[in-house]
Design brief:
This protein has one domain: Rossmann fold. Helix 1 packs across helix 9, helix 4 crosses helix 5 and helix 6 packs across helix 7. It has a five-stranded parallel beta sheet with strand order 2-3-1-4-5, with helices on both faces. The protein has nine helices and five strands. The chain is α/β, with parallel strands linked by helices. Catalyzes the phosphorylation of the 3'-hydroxyl group of dephosphocoenzyme A to form coenzyme A. It is found in: Cytoplasm.
């Protein structure tokens, strides 16, 4: 298995813009957010456990998970968030490892907002942090997700502190500028990672 690069950053930092560029260069992106949705799809055991625990109101009419309703519950009560993480994190970890093992690009990216919080960091050889100031995170997330400011700040508070995240970075990509600035950094990052791979 080749070089595995973890890319992380708080909500609204621009991880997706960076990984979209790398994907356009033929790099396999294993996206933990996508994996997290896969493991709770209808027919998967995790969804049944979630519905048993939180009640059938947590499901949409078509039987799929109502993610917005679940998010409200788990960000309002940390015990419920811990319960959900104990259920889903091992399943997410297994699926991430399966996708990394199947990758055949020059290097593989694991994109995850929780890369540094749990055991996912053990799956990568190096860590890239996409960084923006907290106020930029708040503004971008509010305009993108139409969440109110209080909800966005609660999500940020639940994520790793910015300084702690930066302290664990092998490479930092500063995304406080324009999309053009980010693209220049993405090109340089890609070249550097190819040379390491």
């Amino acid at each position: 298995m080749g070089l595995v690069v973890g890319i992380t950053g708080g909500i609204g930092s621009g991880k997706s813009a960076l990984t979209n560029y790398l994907a356009s260069q033929g790099i396999t992106i294993v996206d933990a957010d996508v994996v997290a949705r896969v493991v709770v799809e209808p027919g998967r055991p995790a969804l049944e456990a979630i519905a048993d625990h939180f009640g059938r109101d947590i499901l949409q009419a078509d039987g799929s998970l109502d993610r917005a309703a679940l998010r409200k519950v788990v960000f309002a009560d940390s015990n419920e968030r811990i319960w959900l993480e104990k259920l889903t994190h091992p399943l997410i970890g297994e699926e991430i490892q399966r996708q990394i093992a199947a990758s055949d690009s020059a290097y593989t990216v694991l994109s995850s907002p929780l890369l540094l919080e749990g055991s996912q960091s053990e799956m990568v050889d190096m860590v890239v942090v996409v960084d923006v100031p907290v106020e930029v995170q708040v503004a971008r997330t509010m305009s993108r997700d139409s969440n109110d400011e209080g909800q966005v700040r609660r999500i940020i508070a639940a994520q790793m502190d910015r300084d702690a995240r930066l302290a664990k970075a092998d490479i930092v990509v500063d995304n406080s500028g324009s999309l053009g600035d980010l693209e220049k950094q993405a090109e340089a990052l890609h070249a550097r990672l190819l040379s390491l791979a």
